[in-house]
Amino acid sequence: MLKGEGVTVVDAEILERAMEDCGLRFLGFRHGTGIPPYVAGMVTSCSADEGRRDRTAALEDPDRVSRANVDWFELATEFGLLSVDRQFLLSISVPHPDSVDDSDVEGVWGLVELMDDWDIMGAGCAVGITGSPYGCPAFVMSALDGSVFVQGTVWQDTIGTAVLPNPHRVQSLRDVARLNVGKSYRSSAENEDTLAWLAR
Asked: Rounded to an integer, what distance in angstroms lies between the CA atom of residue 156 and that of residue 30?
């Protein structure tokens, strides 16, 4: 099952097929990365002074999806999101382990590989992997080593990609992470990743 903005996943086979539709190869979930997905999802709250860089395309631009795809790839390449095998981490929403229904979710990293024929901003959003609906990104990504976070979003009149290199050095993110440690709404896995990230 895939649903909503982002993805609620209960079937890895469905997830794998959906990713193939947008040019991603799903290589499985990755736990214990020491990189908290919820922290990676705060790139757009950071400032340019903290290292954030953005590229945007106007919503009214008929070529916005193709432009946004180019921008995402250029930023991903320039700032090192992709490994030598073109792999990276993509946050996938799954039911919280202590939830009683699917409305309470947490981000879990999926290891993905970028294939030759891909469409992050269009097809990826259309199938609910990188946003929803078509052309409306809402994704959170990280390099395998956590050295850069990448977030896709829709602003008032643009769509785009925001990149944050060396996020573990950004004080505002570290402050948020410290406030989240041990909270009841954080799973044990999230707490472990947060503590590991703060120890960098």
From this structure: 33
Residue 149 CA to residue 28 CA, distance in Å, equals 19
pTM over 0.90: yes
Q: Give the residue from 167, 175, 143, 137 showing the smallest Cα distance to 57.
A: 137
The residues with which 136 forms a beta bridge, in sequence order, are none
* Six-digit token string for 196: 């590991």
pLDDT at 104 > cutoff 80: no
Contact 80, 148 (CB under 8 A): yes
Taking only the tens place, the pLDDT of each residue in 112-136 is 999 999 999 999 999 999 999 999 9
Domain boundaries in the chain? 12-198
Least confident segment among 14-18, 83-87, 92-96:
92-96
Q: Is the torsion defined by CA of 41, 44, 47, 53 positive or negative? A: positive
